[in-house]
Amino acid sequence: MPSRKEQSVPSLRARLLGQRLRALREDRGLTLRYVSGYLGVDFNAARLLEYGQWMAHYTQILSLLDLYGVYEHGEREFLVQLARDAFRLPAWEGDFNAPELDVSTLDSLWLESRAERIRCYDAVLVPDLLRTPEYAEAVVQRVYAPRASEPVLAWRSGMCGRRQREVFDRQPPVEMRAMVAEAALLRSVGAPDAVWQAQLEHLGNCGDGGSVQLRVLPTAAGYVPGMDGSFTVFDLPQAFVPAVACSPHLDSVAVHEGDAGQWYAEAFDRLWEAALPGGTSARLITGLVADMTAVR
């Protein structure tokens, strides 16, 4: 769970909710004083709600949406769920064995669970959502052992599969574009050969079609701005929320909004154009598997 200090930092979820509520209020020509009276709260509470710093009950959000005339099903449902998620994510914060997760990490998990399109690029490893359980465990052992307890290591190993189910079992299917640097296909992170071979076979089956598309960014592509580090761009289902990007940083995640989020979205599109088409990427990966088999 977030520490006392981190709890004072408004989450992305709370800020997105506040920003939308403020935009709706201003569009309707209403004052904060009127809204505070309508909700039966003091002026400062209504102000802090729009800055993501006050925990309104979701029923109060429903009242505000009625006041603002928001009846379109998609937007109303999104904002109500956002109000439920804004200050706590029970699925991730209620697990006894979970390590302490900071606000930005929780925001990235929320984004992943709500996005209708995910665009991820990994410069070093296989993208999280395409890892096999055994490969994911090898990465966790490499990163966190021996400074983490066995229960925490087990939780982190299982976290990858849990996230995959959350994304790939969703209906309608989430559109995913995954890209991996060619050099990462030669980096087994210490996993046994059989585990690494199975991981490559899994990647080779992703191809370029359906809701999941995979491309390899070849070393021969030269330098393309944005290829320096791994990142993921999330496109949420509502047009009023611009693309948000996340990049890993040690044990945490950096969240990029606004112009920075747009930069990452444009960087991904540049990299995607420079990457090998899906069929060519699959043949490259299956060729690596064939080479491993021949050596063994």
Automatic annotation (TrEMBL):
InterPro entries: Cro/C1-type_HTH, DUF5753, Lambda_DNA-bd_dom_sf. This is DUF5753 domain-containing protein. GO terms for molecular function: DNA binding. CDD domains: HTH_XRE (cd00093). Residues 109-286 form the DUF5753 domain. Pfam families: DUF5753 (PF19054), HTH_31 (PF13560).
